[in-house]
Design goal:
By secondary structure, the chain is mainly beta. The protein has strands at residues 3-6, 11-15, 28-29, 39-43, 46-52, 57-61, 67-72, 77-85, 88-95, 99-104, 115-116, 126-128, 137-141, 145-150, 156-161.
């Protein structure tokens, strides 16, 4: 088992099971702070690490730090969610630039995405089949709202105005 952690000094570290830092150095240096919990994806016996930065870039790297691709937005990225797609994966994330993004495992936009809402996204989206139709929805919070999107299309479903400041990620109870 290994631990991946980002720092405000722009680094992503891989900590080995013995407590040592892999290669005694960060595996990734971003252009700004990494204030995003890394996501570890296992697919076909390969691991992929997803992390965003306040430099507005989503980085996907392997455990050795080789960048597989990155995706540039117009502002800070604070969280993401992984979506299973036909033996592969997609990544949903928002940025403070007012867009909600949905990309495939090669960094390409899913058809109909990104979606501009004009809202700043400062948390990670969650994925759940809220209406039990077999197709999950994207739930994401903005500074004052919860928003709901269909995952199989670019259809914006609705939003709920909470009338107060929202900080943190939404959570789903089944």
């Amino acid at each position: 088992d290994e631990i991946f952690v980002g720092t405000e000094s722009d680094h992503l570290y891989r900590i080995e099971s013995n407590g040592n830092i892999y290669n005694n150095s960060p595996i990734l240096t971003a252009g700004d702070k990494i204030k995003f919990a890394p996501i570890i994806i296992s697919l076909n016996n390969e691991f992929h690490i997803v992390v965003g930065s306040t430099d507005g870039i989503l980085y996907i790297t392997n455990p050795e730090g080789e960048i597989e691709f990155n995706y540039e937005t117009g502002d800070e990225i604070h969280g993401a969610a992984i979506v299973p797609i036909n033996n592969s994966f997609g990544i949903v994330f928002g940025s403070e630039d007012g867009f909600l993004y949905f990309i495939d495992n090669n960094g390409n936009n899913i058809s109909g995405w990104p979606q501009y809402t004009g809202n700043s996204y400062e948390s990670a989206p969650v994925i759940a089949d809220l209406d039990l139709d077999g197709s999950p929805e994207i739930i994401v919070s903005t500074s004052t709202h919860l928003q709901f999107f269909s995952i199989n299309s670019d259809i914006y479903i609705s939003q709920l105005n909470l009338g107060q400041t929202v900080k943190g990620n939404p959570a789903i109870a089944d």
